[in-house]
Design goal:
This protein is an alpha/beta fold. The protein has ten helices and nine strands.
């Protein structure tokens, strides 16, 4: 596998072997984190975070990952403080910043922006989310969370609940799950059901897919909840019709499997009741924490740093 200077743009660019490789190496780095809070693996390396859209977990976990590896970070977390406010194009911004840093993470509200950025960069580009399209590093930490819990992803029953139309985490995750032997149940309002192409792609790969508008979580191993993506809706009235369509509370968990886990890419709004936080099923805070070893592994891999 060639990882040095590899752009991480879409989970669709990964084979199953490559995904499993990242998950395995993330486990190695997580064990290193237990014994030591920092490393010198990326000493002298610079990460540039270019966030044209708000972020807490993705931006801060990349910063934390880089600093735990001994590197440093530069960049911005709001487009208003970048030269985009003066009319600079993404292409020109990336051309300039790739001369300052060894790796770039970019988040942008326009679909395809990360792919475009990769065409103008001399250093690896990592997609931190491009509109409603892809969020590959979130998908990798999601898979890492599932694999840590069940040891294997194959054979699981997975419910994905909420905004399946605009949620980029869902689009990335379902694409990745197409590499495994799983059963998927999509639960959403009719207006927010998964894009037809995603359902077709899964079916074409032999994945059993069911769709429903009812919040039925029985016989689930993984319950993956997403918030309604208000910022993606072209029509505010459409959002008002579906907001709060599904709320997980203790009653919702009746009939789920004993060892089932509940995940959420966060931030949550009201779709998971705080009562669930104290249950043995909640994994969303651990899920967010898992972003550190996964992003550490990706940073090392694309910068050609061997740590195993």
């Amino acid at each position: 596998m060639r990882w040095t200077k590899k752009h991480i743009i879409s989970i669709n660019d990964f084979s199953r072997d490559e995904i499993d490789f990242v998950l395995e190496k993330s486990g190695i780095l997580e064990k290193k984190l237990v014994s030591s809070s920092t490393s010198s693996l990326m000493n002298g390396k610079i990460l540039a975070n270019l966030f044209f859209e708000p972020s807490t977990r993705t931006r801060m976990s990349f910063e934390a990952a880089m600093k735990r590896l001994g590197g440093i970070t530069i960049g911005f977390d709001h487009p208003g403080i970048s030269s985009e406010a003066k009319g600079e194009t993404i292409a020109d911004t990336v051309r300039i910043v790739s001369g300052y840093a060894d790796v770039i993470v970019i988040r942008h509200p326009i679909e395809g922006s990360a792919r475009l950025a990769s065409e103008y960069s001399d250093v690896p580009i990592i997609n931190g989310g491009d509109g409603a399209n892809q969020h590959p590093t979130q998908t990798l930490l999601d898979l890492y969370t599932i694999k840590k819990e069940f040891k294997s992803i194959d054979g699981l029953d997975i419910c994905i609940v909420g905004d399946l139309k605009y949620g980029r985490t869902v689009h990335s995750l379902t694409s990745a799950l197409g590499n495994y032997d799983v059963r998927i149940r999509f639960i959403s309002p009719r207006e927010l059901r998964a894009p037809r192409q995603i359902v077709k792609n899964l079916s074409d790969r032999g994945i059993e897919v069911k769709e429903t508008t009812k919040l039925n979580l029985k016989n689930s191993d993984v319950i993956y909840v997403t918030r309604i993506q208000k910022e993606r809706f072209p029509d505010p009235q459409e959002y008002e019709r579906v907001k709060g369509a599904f709320v997980l509370n203790l009653n919702s968990l009746e009939g789920i499997r004993e060892n089932a886990i509940i995940m959420h890419p966060l931030p949550r709004v009201s779709e998971i009741s705080p009562d669930i936080d104290a249950t043995k099923h909640a994994r969303y805070f651990e899920q967010a924490k898992n972003g550190i070893p996964v992003r550490m592994a990706l940073l090392c891999l694309v910068c050609g740093i061997k740590f195993w």
